Amino acid sequence: MSGLDFSVVGKKNPEKIFKYNNKDVILYALGIGAQVSELQFIYEGVSGGLKVFPSFATIPRRVAFPKLGKISFPKFIHGEELVKVHKPFSPQGEIICYSEVTNIYDKGKAAVINVTTTGLSNNRDPLFEIESSFFYLGAGGFGGDRGPKKEPLKPPEDAPPDFNITYKTTENQAALYRLNGDFNPLHIDPEAARFGGQEKPILHGLCTYGFATRAILYSVCDGDVSRFKEFKVRFTNVVYPGEWLTTEGWKVNGKYIIQVKTERAVVLSNAYAIVN
């Protein structure tokens, strides 16, 4: 009934090549809210060369996204994302990508699909690793393993954040971000959004992730992409295009506990970042 192909679990998918150039890098930066003041990310002629946001890693993995069966994408929701970046991205080039479905868990009302993606340079040096978790609504109840329980990662109680930065998304943020390759109609088509259980189109979770990456990069890395190493989040609530996003961080035991919220709700939780 779910359309899921359970035979994909544990199989490495064929390697694919992701080709990109300055235009793709700039489009991504604009998609996560970069402004004219951030020339190093949006202008190829900037002194020192065009830089690439670390969260750009979430873009090339689309070429290697595994085939999961007959999926209804409006019911396919991002659950968690972990990106580990081994070296800064060149502003143009080729990336070798491959993926593997590591588990499919039964959560009753939904199936949870865990996918790992690896990115390599042309000489096969590691560039990034991504661990993603997706909820496929209505696909649970197949009698499978519910998966391990995870201890929540929370900010310290009664402690002010070490940094706090707020950005505004625009009304057309999802329309712009989808041009990076995520064409799930959930993010632009009101009818598809209602079919997926949302009152209206929602912002891509990875767009929110990119906004948070910008905030972390400027707050604790002084804009230096080489210092950004790892960022993990859980997507806990939807964001609507046009809302404000506030990213807060608390330094605890050498890493930053991260929380992102709108005026309505916390939207990224159980999150941490590791920087140099």
Describe the structure.
The protein has a ten-stranded antiparallel β-sheet with strand order 1-3-4-5-2-7-10-9-8-6. With 276 residues, the protein is an alpha+beta fold. The mean pLDDT is 94. It has one domain (6-275): Roll (Thiol Ester Dehydrase, Chain A), CATH 3.10.129.10. The radius of gyration is 18 Å and the shape is globular. The chain contains five helices and ten strands, in the order βααβββββαααββββ. The N and C termini lie far apart (47 Å). β4 (110-120) and β5 (126-137) form a beta hairpin.
Which tags fit this structure?
10 strands, 15% helix, globular, Thiol Ester Dehydrase, Chain A, alpha+beta, 276 residues
Uncertain stretches of 5 or more adjacent residues: none
The average pLDDT score comes to 94
Query: How much helicity do the residues have?
Result: 10-25%
- Name the quaternary structure: single chain
**Biggest pleated sheet:** 10 strands, antiparallel
CATH class: Alpha Beta
Shape: globular
Span between termini: 47 Å
CATH topology: Thiol Ester Dehydrase, Chain A
Q: Quickly give the CATH architecture.
A: Roll
Tally of distinct domains: 1
Order of H and E elements: EHHEEEEEHHHEEEE
Tell how many strands the DSSP assignment holds.
10
Strand content: 25-35%
Strand arrangement, major sheet: 1-3-4-5-2-7-10-9-8-6
**Rg over CA atoms:** 18 Å
Determine the CATH superfamily: Hotdog Thioesterase
Number of helices: 5
Structural class: alpha+beta
